[in-house]
Specification:
Elements (H helix, E strand, L loop, with lengths): L3 E4 L3 E6 L2 E6 L1 H6 L5 E5 L6 H17 L3 E5 L6 H9 L6 E5 L1 H10 L11 E16 L8 H10 L4 E5 L5 H12 L5 E5 L3 H9 L5 E5 H9 L4 E5 L25 E9 L4 H15 L2 H9 L3 E2 L5 H24 L2
Helix pairs in contact: 2-9, 4-11, 6-11
Length: 330
């Protein structure tokens, strides 16, 4: 007597040795998606993550065969949107555009985060990173990182740098730079947003800020600020003339925000594979890659579901010690 039967929705029900196994068949994945897919952006409209998500949504319809609807669910440093996706039905129709805040920093910084950043999600595809950078007002007499470090060491405690707040990626980047540069004495000034801190540097009210390259670059080109280095292992395609921190004399400073597409844990593998192939097709498009570069994003053009999941694990482990140290100093 046979112990396997075909049932509706392309699911195979196998019965053997008193055990039951439910395995999605290829037909199940081929039918997906039958309606639009929702991409949750865990931040308000207008920011870098929102712009990247909307560009993705506009491009992916052709590869996926359905529209992708962008849904902004902001609040609590990205955790509100993250929690909504973690609780969503694992059917492939609700995805998250995760960031450094939601999936690298908050898991350590927030004692009661409403999801497990690793266990409650499964990777789909990594999209790109945005490098942080060391930005100073032109009135500071330093044309390079080495000159800036020497100046700060000669005048300890006289300089201050701005960030988006205690425990944010900009704050952590500033603390990592101070540490790797030999324990610089620079005062941290937290702001409510990166825009406000950058505005104060532009106005000459603050000497230094840790900012994304994309936000500071237009002002650098207009000589209103000076970007001394990008905090990445390689120069950013958006500003190939600006050295990395390592090239400028302070190695070990790799600080970036990221965008990774995640699905709720338990989403069937064939659906994850279908989604990944659609995102991979978009990322392989040279014109889309150029769009990202123009936004200051460094595209990750070769990814996989495993790569995306592993990326999150690595980033949590990388930032946890620095997050704990920063919070202790608060």
């Amino acid at each position: 007597m046979r112990h396997d039967y075909k049932i509706r929705l392309g699911v195979t029900l196998g019965v053997a040795w008193g055990c039951i196994a439910v395995v999605p068949s290829p037909a199940f994945a081929q039918e997906f998606p039958e309606r639009p897919v929702r991409l949750v952006i865990p931040f308000a409209p207008g920011g870098n993550t929102d712009i990247v998500g909307r560009r993705l949504g506009a491009r992916i319809a052709g590869a996926l065969g359905q529209q992708m609807i962008v849904d902004n669910r902001s609040g609590a440093g990205g955790t509100i949107g993250g929690a909504e996706v973690a609780r969503a039905k694992p059917d492939g129709y609700t995805l998250l555009l995760a960031t450094s805040s939601s999936h690298a920093i908050n898991p350590t910084a927030m004692p009661k985060i409403p999801y497990d950043a690793v266990k409650d999600f499964t990777g789909v595809s990594a999209i790109g990173t945005v490098s942080q950078s060391l930005v100073i007002h032109p009135s500071i007499p330093a044309k390079s990182v080495r000159e800036f470090v020497a100046l700060v060491k000669a005048r300890p405690g006289e300089f201050a740098y701005g960030s988006t707040g205690v425990g944010g990626i900009n704050h952590l980047g500033g603390e990592l730079f101070k540490q790797k540069a030999g324990g610089l004495n620079i005062v941290h000034v937290p702001y409510k947003s990166s825009g406000l801190s950058l505005q104060d540097v532009l106005g000459g009210h603050l000497p230094v800020v840790i900012s994304t390259v994309s936000a500071a670059l237009p002002h650098h080109r207009n000589n209103r600020v000076r970007i001394l280095a990008v905090f990445n292992d390689e120069r950013t395609p958006a500003a190939p003339d600006i050295p990395t921190s390592a090239e400028a004399g302070v190695p070990g400073v790799t600080v970036y925000t990221f965008n990774i597409v995640l699905a709720p844990a338990g989403t069937p593998a064939p659906i994850i594979d279908r989604l990944h192939k659609a995102f991979a097709a978009v990322m392989a498009d040279d014109s889309f890659a150029k769009e990202l570069v123009d936004l200051g994003v460094e595209p990750i053009r070769r990814s996989s579901p495993k790569h995306a999941s592993d990326f999150v694990r690595v980033e949590i482990a990388r930032w946890a010690p620095l997050v704990r140290a920063a919070l202790q100093e608060k």
